[in-house]
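Following the same procedure, sequence and fold were stored together, as reproduced here.

>
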Amino acid sequence: MSARGSATYRRLLEVAARELAENGDVEVATIARRAGVSVGLPYRYFGTKSGMLRAVVTDFHDRLDEAVIAREFVGDTWAERERARVVAWVDHLYGDPLAPVLLGRLGDADSDGVATQRLHAAIRCGARNVARGQRDGDLHAGRDPELLVAAVLGGVHTAVTVALSRIPRPAPADVAAQLWAFVAGAAGVAERTS
């Protein structure tokens, strides 16, 4: 893709993300109008409305991965590193206008498929992380890392979805503190450090 094509793609993606955050859905004609391009141009880059949604969801998860999931946090223990990850996770989602929409289901099979794939990738990454904590003696070794992470991510995901839907929203620091208590309890941090 040329530099001009990349810039156009990026602009369309940003407009689609804003439209989705503001209205909970996208219409190709609206995106084209807001981006100042012909109605046919978004189809050139995304193929379909579903393709556009898939691109927005993929971009959202790419940013989440970079900011939180794939990031190495500093700390001497698993608990120190993961407490920082929980805070970063909440802060990132609170700061992303797409989070309230994308943490739920869009009802688009392609987009929901991307979200499911990314969740499974996060579970695999988290399972490796928990296994490391178990090897290092920071976590109880008798728990299945993959099942533990699946349960924790499901709980964190749902809790953040609830927090983002409240009016007024609870403070991110309060949400992160409550989520950390949940994660630490589920992982057995308290029983290993006491």
The two ends are 56 Å apart (CA to CA). Residues 109-135 form the longest helix (27 residues). The chain has ten helices and no strands.
